[in-house]
Amino acid sequence: MEGNTPEVLCVTPQRKRTWVPASVTNLYSTKRRRVSFAPADLGKEVKPSPAQSIIHSEEQADRFISARPHVTLPLNITPRTQRIARGFGLIDDKLLRYSAPGASSSHQPVSDQLRVSFSTLLQKAAKVSPTSAAGNLGKRKQFTLALDGPGIPSDPFAYPLTWSKKNVIAVACGKDVYYQDLSDRRIVHLCKIDKVCNGKTTSVEWSPTSPSIIALGTTTGSVQLWDAEMKSCIRTWRDLDWDPVGGLNWHQSQDLLTVGADNGMVRFYDVRQPDAVATLTRHKSKVHGVRWNYDGNYLATSDQQGVVYIWDARASKTLDNDRMMGGRVRHGAPVKALAWCPWQSDLLATGSTYPDGKLRIFSVKSTNPIPMPRHTIPLHTAVTSIHWSPHCKEIATTHGTSWNPNAPTTGRMVSCPSQLSNSLTVHTYPSFRRVVSVQAHAGAVGHSCLSPDGTDIFTICPAEEAMKMWHVWSTAKEKKRESAFDKFSIR
Q1: Which residues form the CDC20/Fizzy WD40 domain (predicted)?
Q2: Which of 96, 163, 394, 422 can pair with 389 through a Cys bridge, CB separation 3.0 to 4.6 Å?
Q3: Integer Cα distance of 399 and 359 in angstroms
């Protein structure tokens, strides 16, 4: 039977694998399985597919959500990959920001950006007027002439410098007075006053109607008239109170000299009369500034208390009709700098010293009983003189010491150097944008004067005992009218 027994194959039965809870480490684990990627060089730029390059040729971004990043790898899929990418600087903490700081806005097409860049190349620079200080003093911030002045008065309220219509400059040096003709640079000693009776010369002023006549004001209150051509004294007026002379100024069309004094008096002298012809007694302190406007109708005077009076020469009284507060302008510090506008005769510029340090513009045509300033420019620097340009709408100021307006008030000035310290500065009118500012001297600019043609300014510094001439403006070129006969010739 063994031979007939069939051969039986033993096959191991395969059991179906069933799920057994014990085979899982944690039945309720929420830990996600890590996803591994193929090794990739993150430093290389990942090139998009051709289809992507066609569809996304320009980035498009919403107003609040920026465009998607250029990296196609999912660097922020897990916290671990976020930490790694942040460590390598591939992403930052600002989720809605994919561009670098200062990058251009992604919502603006590249074509628009190129169009804007090309348009800036075609733009022309703003044309500078040839008469402006920007085209003269702004280009060459150097003085054109320097002179020595030994013995210049150290008083910051003195007027030791003047410029005549004949282009002759005179300077007071102690008890001596010199002048120089700038045409041939010849220096002449005019006079030496008697120190015992007349003291020292503090103020000088050439006559506009007789350019060879010069007025001298002294520390003892005497006023002298000298003829520069004859080198002789032609008139002397003495003050019985011996009060020093403040400002001097001639009337533009008459032989009338206006003199301010330390006792608050303003006197008027006629060259033909031996005594004063009129007197103003409104000021209560030292008169530092005296200035007639260009048509000779208005007179401005200023004093130590910062009070500025405007007088109507046609009515011989103040503009207030003798009311107490009318026609009076008040600064918070002594005022020496006064200047009338040559192309608008009703405008008056005033400048004050410490602790006010402001430049103000007034109009005599104001209907208010108390004139209010049209413009007030705080400079926090002592303003020593002011000049309007006769050729353009600009105004020049000279300055002394600067200070910090936020410093505690102690009654004593603490200097704080600034760009305006000891400078010659030019502003535009009426915007008062600063055109140019140059440091004129190493010390405070005591006084300055304008040339007869209104283009140059001479500054003087008592600390340096020096004077400097600056080319600030230029005269407007006259346009020659062309004629047909200039272009063509007749045969």
Answers
A1: 147-470
A2: 394
A3: 11
Determine what percent of the chain is predicted with pLDDT higher than 90. Answer: 54
**Same domain flag for 72 and 208:** no
Burial class (CB in 10 A: 0-12, 13-18, 19+), 443: middle
Residues 87 and 167 in one domain: no
Asked whether residue 71 falls in the same domain as residue 197, the answer is no
- Tell me whether residue 106 is in a domain: no
Instruction: Give a yes or no: residue 105 inside a domain.
Output: no
Is residue 25 one of the residues assigned to a domain?
A: no
Distance CA 350, CA 342 (A): 15
| CA 422/CA 329 separation, integer angstroms | 26
Model pLDDT for residues 81-137, shown as the tens digit of each residue: 777 777 776 665 554 444 444 444 445 677 777 777 767 777 776 678 889 999 999
DSSP result, 166-177: TSEEEEEETTEE
Say yes or no: 79 and 226 in one domain: no
Please check whether residue 237 is in contact with residue 223, taking contact to mean a CB–CB distance below 8 angstroms: yes
Query: C-alpha distances in angstroms, 22 versus 15, 29, 30, 32, 298?
Result: 18, 14, 17, 20, 112
Residue identified by tokens 């005269």 is 475
DSSP 183: T
Give per-residue pLDDT as tens, 2-30: 444 444 444 545 555 555 554 444 444 44
Torsion of CA 208, 277, 155, 335, to 10 degrees: -90
Which candidate, 201, 196, 228, 224, places its Cα nearest to that of 212? 228
Beta-bridge mates of residue 249: 258
CB 186 within 8 A of CB 213: no
Q: Are residues 264 and 361 in the same domain?
A: yes
Please count the other Cβ atoms lying within 10 Å of the Cβ belonging to residue 232. 10
Same domain, 161 and 87: no
> Closest Cα to residue 142, out of 402, 384, 472?
472
Provide the mean pLDDT of the chain: 80
Q: Provide the token pair at 189.
A: 């000693």
Q: Where does the pLDDT of residue 56 fall: very low under 50, low under 70, confident under 90, or very high at 90 and above?
A: very low
Domain tally, the chain? 2
In a domain, 382, yes or no: yes
**Domain with 198 in it:** 133-471
Which CATH number characterizes residue 424's domain?
A: 2.130.10.10
Asked if residue 92 and residue 167 are part of one domain, the reply reads no
| 92 and 205 together in one domain | no
Only one residue has tokens 């430049």, namely 359
